[in-house]
Amino acid sequence: MDFLSFTEANKEKKYDEVILCKFGEVVLKGANRQNFESGLLKEMRRRASPHGTFKIYVKQSTIYIEPQDDECDIDGMYATAKKVFGIVGVNRAAVCEKNMESISEMARIYLPEKLRGKRTFKVDAKRSDKKFPLKSPDISREIGGVILSTVRGIKVDVHNPDVTVTVEVRDDHAYIRAGQEPGAGGLPLRSAGRGLLLLSGGIDSPVAGCMMAKRGMEIEALHFESFPYTSERAREKVMKLAEEMCEYCAKIHVHVISLTHVQEEIRDRCSEDYFTLILRVFMMRLAERCARDYKCGALITGESLGQVASQTLSAIGVTDSVVNIPVFRPCIGLDKTEIIDTARHYGTFETSILPFEDCCTVFTPRHPKTQPKIDDVMAEIAKLDFDALFEEAYASMYTETKMVYENYR
Ligand code: ATP
Ligand code: MG
Fold this sequence. Notes:
The chain is of the alpha/beta class.
């Protein structure tokens, strides 16, 4: 057995533990499956590197993550594996040789701690090695007996157990695990092109970015600031949000554009009711240019229908009509409470609620237009030297790169 008892720590515990990650929708990908699988494997290897040396490979729609020495941080690796898109279930499993004696022995050593506090269980046995002498129901029965005799007070419930113990007899080894935790779901990062997220410091846009990353998009971000009307700390907050998103999105280039002069001109020349809409036209056009320069196939915003005046159907109609690139708004049909739950899930909520201003909240109109017409908005914009302001703003762009860990490549 090549890797049994590979670590001193495991020799003491008398078992080797590995992490198993179950594929999600990747398995539906037919002819493309190979690409999805190799993308996912590559990402898992990159994400593993700060946690130590692991052997990571794919077999039978599962990614196996095997620690190679005592330095490996298996808890850290487990937490990371749960944040890799494309995986639906993550679990830790004990490994043993493929014979009933070893499997029973392993069940005796490994399971009592995992089943502590549980009242009922069932055993689910699977054998992909059809030459294994026992059939699945026989394996289940035997291991069920072992559990009943080693875990005091626990009972069998095959219909609604507190925990399911899974025994898998695979090609090389047998694996035992108790329960399974959900993975991040979705499709592997970078399997669905690149999107440019309009990232504010609010709750919604980081959620929108994570939701599209979950569908396989690589996320690039664009933030608009309006110094000195917005502060240094507001910018730091956005950078912190991007960093937090990297737990799931891995790496984000954050482009920052200054709208100070644009906003001052709007304030001085246009009718107040249209301030926000005109600003949003600038934002969308600048984002479109940025998307083309950085090869992003879509814009992503955190808009949610009816949430504020600039997110009525008419207002969205206006901002949508000024660009010629798909605009994804994954929060469009979510309630604020649902967006907040998702923000907590992705770990951005606490930073999002820090009280700093956004450029959308400086010079806000007292009576914003909620039923704007594109012609009226354009008539207001005609009062400005749009092209000069656009070029000046775009030229102010600078970029910072955030990563899940230093040296992530
Ligand atoms: P959020 O919570 O994401 O800030 P919001 O509910 O505050 O959204 P708005 O301020 O109307 O809504 O912004 C709508 C969307 O426009 C945001 O979700 C974001 O995608 C984009 N946006 C707003 N402000 C900025 C900004 N300063 N930089 C980049 N994008 C922005
Ligand atoms: Mg906002």
